[in-house]
């Protein structure tokens, strides 16, 4: 079904600044925010990689005082958010810098919600309607090419009491500016480059194929597919290849804008269930499940899969042939970049029923191009575990 007659709205509250070395202009961006006291939200990996050395001199030169909060887990937890909010509030910060991957940037959004609303539990803000006003302003500086979190206005946070991933969403949560500097991604290890890159590809493919897709997000998603499939293996094999890194960063950005204005589908529903129970990295979960869900959905979006195959550079004579080529190309790419198997995540057969139930209850299940029940999810989980 064409989406050209469907109503849609498109809002991008975040200004994008992109380019090699663009982070050097951080001082100018903080001046625009009239920031005097800034809290840097990051994680231990970013500190270990020495990336804060790119921004500390800028803050010192501008006479901006700062504190650092690095207590963020790979899958951000409610306790990380609440601890971070206490740090930001006690420092009386008037702005934040979120420097890191999607976990860091999502956590910064959620911290901003608690600080601006005077809340204590991020759980109280779950959903699309609880954030009532702009959060503490922040600059997002992504260091991975995967989530696109720098241009989305939602945060996925693990509810540790119930072991599931909740979403807090509002345009009020958007970063004021996203500074995308390909140089900041060159230190990312190959295995993280691979999983985050496949995560971005998942965003693009699902944004394009879900029932609620719209023309602007379609265009962004297809170009993201092209950039990612042409450059992911290059970035994994040669992390110093700045052109490949730049292409991946732009691909991730476009995919992030696409899915935040469309939706995701069953890959994310399954991945978030996995992440909630096993605390497995979100990018890895998406990456290992993408081929299974694509294969399952193929008959229900043949024309769109064929367009995806074309964006991937595949040639074919019929749309059905193209759709199958898209599925095979994703499988091949996953192997080429050395992704782990689903089984390697330590999934127990006894948990499959619960995982399927959680996936079916995810709000994005309704957007998937193929109708999905708990039983359908169970079939996919069993197939993935058996391979």
Automatic annotation (TrEMBL):
GO terms for molecular function: alcohol dehydrogenase (NAD+) activity; metal ion binding. CDD domains: Fe-ADH. InterPro entries: ADH_Fe/GldA, ADH_Fe_C, Alcohol_dehydrogenase_Fe. Keywords: Oxidoreductase. SUPFAM superfamilies: Dehydroquinate synthase-like. Residues 13-182 form the Alcohol dehydrogenase iron-type/glycerol dehydrogenase GldA domain. It holds the Pfam family Fe-ADH. Residues 193-385 form the Fe-containing alcohol dehydrogenase-like C-terminal domain. PANTHER family: ALCOHOL DEHYDROGENASE, ALCOHOL DEHYDROGENASE 4. Belongs to the iron-containing alcohol dehydrogenase family. This is Alcohol dehydrogenase, class IV. It comes from Acetomicrobium mobile (strain ATCC BAA-54 / DSM 13181 / JCM 12221 / NGA) (Anaerobaculum mobile).
């Amino acid at each position: 079904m064409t989406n050209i007659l469907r109503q849609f709205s498109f809002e991008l509250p975040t200004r994008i600044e992109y380019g090699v070395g663009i982070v050097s202009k951080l001082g100018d961006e903080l001046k625009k925010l009239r920031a005097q006291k800034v809290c840097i939200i990051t994680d231990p990996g970013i500190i270990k990689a020495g990336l804060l050395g790119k921004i500390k001199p800028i803050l010192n030169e501008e006479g901006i005082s700062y504190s650092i909060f690095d207590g963020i887990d790979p899958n951000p937890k409610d306790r990380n958010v609440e601890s971070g909010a206490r740090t930001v509030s006690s420092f009386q910060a008037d702005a934040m810098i979120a420097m890191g991957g999607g976990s860091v940037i999502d956590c910064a959004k959620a911290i901003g919600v608690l600080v601006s609303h005077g809340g204590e539990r991020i759980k109280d803000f779950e959903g699309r309607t609880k954030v009532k006003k702009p959060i503490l302003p922040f600059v997002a500086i992504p260091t991975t090419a995967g989530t696109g979190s720098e241009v989305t206005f939602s945060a996925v946070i693990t509810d540790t009491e119930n072991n599931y991933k909740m979403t807090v969403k509002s345009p009020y949560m958007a970063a004021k500016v996203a500074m995308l500097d390909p140089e900041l991604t060159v230190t990312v290890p190959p295995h993280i480059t691979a999983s985050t890159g496949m995560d971005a590809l998942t965003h693009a493919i699902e944004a394009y194929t879900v029932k609620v897709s719209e023309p602007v997000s379609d265009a962004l998603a297809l170009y993201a597919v092209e950039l990612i499939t042409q450059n992911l293996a290059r970035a994994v094999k040669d992390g110093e290849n700045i052109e490949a890194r730049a292409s991946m960063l732009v691909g991730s950005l476009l995919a992030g804008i696409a899915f935040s204005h469309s939706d995701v589908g069953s890959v994310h529903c399954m991945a978030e269930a996995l992440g909630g129970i096993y605390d497995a990295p979100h990018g890895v979960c998406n990456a290992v499940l993408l081929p299974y869900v694509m294969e399952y959905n193929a008959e229900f979006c043949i024309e769109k899969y064929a367009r995806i195959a074309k964006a991937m550079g595949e040639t074919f004579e019929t749309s059905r042939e193209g759709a199958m080529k898209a599925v095979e190309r994703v499988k091949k790419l996953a192997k080429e970049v050395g992704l782990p198997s689903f089984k390697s995540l330590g999934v127990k057969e006894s948990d499959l029923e619960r995982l399927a139930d959680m996936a079916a209850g995810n709000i994005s299940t309704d957007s998937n191009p193929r109708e999905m029940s708990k039983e359908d999810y169970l079939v996919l989980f069993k197939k993935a575990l058996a391979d």
